[in-house]
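Quarterly update from the structural biology core.
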Amino acid sequence: MLRPLGNFERALRLSNLYSPFNIVVAVELESPPSPDAIQRALAVLQRRHPLLRTRIELHNGRPYFVEMDDFSAPFILVDNQSDWLTITENELQHGMDSSIGPLFRCTYIHNDSHAELLLTFQHTIVDATSAAHLVHELLTLASDPIASFPDLGPVPAVEAYFPPSHRGLGRFFHSLNYAARQMADEIHYQLASRGGHKPSIKFGAHPQVLTMTLDAPLTGSLVRRTRKEKATLNSLLQAAMMLAVDHCRYKGAQMPLRTFAFPDLRAYVTPSVGAEHMGAYISMLRYTFPVQGEQSVWDLARHVNIVIQESFQHGEKFTASLMSEGVMKMMLGLKSMRMGTTALSYTSGLDVLNQYGKTKVHGLHGFISNIDLGPEFSAQVSLFNDMLIWDMVYLDQEMSRTEAEQIAKEIRVILEESIH
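Predicted structure, tokenized:
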């Protein structure tokens, strides 16, 4: 296999060359499969999924996924007294040599009654949707010796499936319009934040993690209330996090905050791409919102919802993907400003089940590396087992664990108060 990286994949590769840029999926298991069963399942999945047996090499200056000759799965069995969150932090901070591969590894914290399964991927080969489906396949194979999945062939980068309006001249004009809107947003942001606080760069900062779960009754109430308030759950979560950061770090000051959203493109391309196909089939969109600590979370959520919907109607989810490599080159080259304040990726409809044979899944987590030029506070939020699981990342040189925990607590308070 010799498959060129797409625009967004190349942007992720640039981030990884600057600082390790990994996804860590952590699964909490009761009555878990044996380590041998997990290793056998990983071997099957490496034969099924081309990107699990690749490295990256340059051909004529362009990066390609190249199939390896020897692609045994990196597997580490860890003492069951180890703390999985500490290991997760280490996994986020330690990169992989792309030129050697493979671009993933597995850590298993195991005893006979419970275990934590940690899968670490270089972000170039996976997104939240395909990572969750891979967990489903792995647990299916590990819990059922006769289960099987057919081998898959490689699929191209996401832009190969973009609509005609974002190819050729259409791509050029959309990119031109998007660049103009981004420039106008930059001018507005600089003017609105003049004299106020802007997050500084803490070069060499490392990601730290914490997790929080909102129970099923609260999650159900939030879902029902979003319908009444004419907002989406994603926009509500974005608003709650921006307000919490403003409360805790900026004392509720009125200021423009920049946040990132990461739309899943799999359902928007033709033909659609199923979750069984690994790849980074997402985009990255940055938005600026005026935030003031005392404003209603629902007012902000509706504003967020309108802005995101309008950007989708302009096709910005495609254009941002096509321009991502250039933007990343500029940010990493200048090293003069932070990319934003917050970032939130919300995922629902994941394929992971509550139980596989005798093995029960008690928790499903996802953490994404942050770099010192990245946002101050970020989160992967997953709807799993009718609960909202917040997996948050902050930078060690920027805030203490106590401050990060205070932000998480404030998010919970804002969401709890929003339903009353």
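DSSP finds ten helices and 15 strands in the chain.
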